[in-house]
Amino acid sequence: MARILAQLALFILPFLAFALYLRYGRKVDSWLSGWSLRAMIVCSLIAVLLVAGSLIALEFSSRGPTTGRYVPPTWKDGVMVPGHIE
Predict the structure, then answer these.
(1) Which of 11, 38, 42, 64 has the most beta carbons within 10 angstroms of its beta carbon?
(2) Distance from first CA to last CA of the chain, Å, rounded?
(3) Considering only CA atoms, which of 51, 83, 86 is closest in space to residue 67?
(4) Is the Cβ–Cβ distance between 9 and 50 less than 8 Å?
(5) Which of 19, 17, 16, 14 is nearest to 49 (CA)?
(6) Alpha-carbon span 86 to 69, nearest angstrom
């Protein structure tokens, strides 16, 4: 659940940053007046790149050992022992 919320926060971040820039940087009074199709496309591309980058980083940082012999999951004394690499 935390990963989903983190991905959602990364996706919303560019839109929020642009909205804050419009409000306080350009001093636009209305929240919707500065938004254009180009701004939406750029924010969407940045959001997709942020989410994809975080997923790639998560994939490479959470890998386990890749050398050794794989032992499949087994039942031992009525308890499931997950598969692992020895």
Answers:
(1) 11
(2) 30
(3) 86
(4) no
(5) 14
(6) 5
Instruction: Locate the domains of the chain by residue range.
Output: 2-76
| 25-75 pLDDT per residue, tens | 888 777 777 788 999 999 999 999 999 999 999 888 877 667 888 889 999
Q: What is the sign, positive or negative, of the torsion defined by CA atoms of 73, 3, 54, 50?
A: positive
Q: Is this structure's pTM higher than 0.70? A: no
- State whether the Cα torsion 23-27-33-38 is positive or negative: negative
Cα–Cα distance between 52 and 44 in angstroms, integer? Answer: 12
What is the DSSP secondary-structure string of 9-53? HHHHHHHHHHHHIIIIIS--SSSSTT--HHHHHHHHHHHHHHHHH
Q: Which token pair is 26? A: 């350009």
